[in-house]
Specification:
This protein is mostly helical. Helices cover about 80% and strands about 0% of the residues.
Length: about 120
């Protein structure tokens, strides 16, 4: 079974709504930061996968970078402040975080495929 952009958007948006309902509240600044980072990262990971044919690890790094970028853009628009100064630090941290998540995802996907082949 293969998943695509539509499924990723469903999971990402649903996750943000659930967290919003249970923890942070809906339609506040936390919600807007989360949804902007989520949507931008999912769209850019889709582009990285389909256009540039990046690996799972490469797509994860792209997603991590654009998630941070989306949140900073939302912060600048909503709060009208200079959060752009945090962007270099966030981007530097996004690279190892994206690599770590990509490696774990690759491991899980590979083991999941082996599990399905046993049936």
């Amino acid at each position: 079974m293969e998943y695509g952009l539509k499924e990723a958007l469903y999971v990402g948006v649903l996750r943000i709504f659930i967290v919003g309902i249970l923890r942070t509240g809906l339609f506040n600044t936390y919600f807007v930061f989360s949804i902007s980072g989520c949507l931008l990262s999912i769209i850019m990971m889709f582009v990285a996968l389909k256009v540039f044919k990046l690996s799972i690890i490469g797509c994860s790094v792209v997603g991590s970078i654009f998630h941070s970028l989306g949140q900073v853009i939302a912060c600048i628009i909503i709060l009208n402040n200079s959060m752009i100064y945090y962007l270099p630090y966030l981007l530097l941290l996004s690279i190892p975080t994206g690599i770590l998540v990509g490696v774990m995802t690759k491991y899980i996907v590979n083991n999941y495929k082996e599990y399905l082949n046993d049936f």
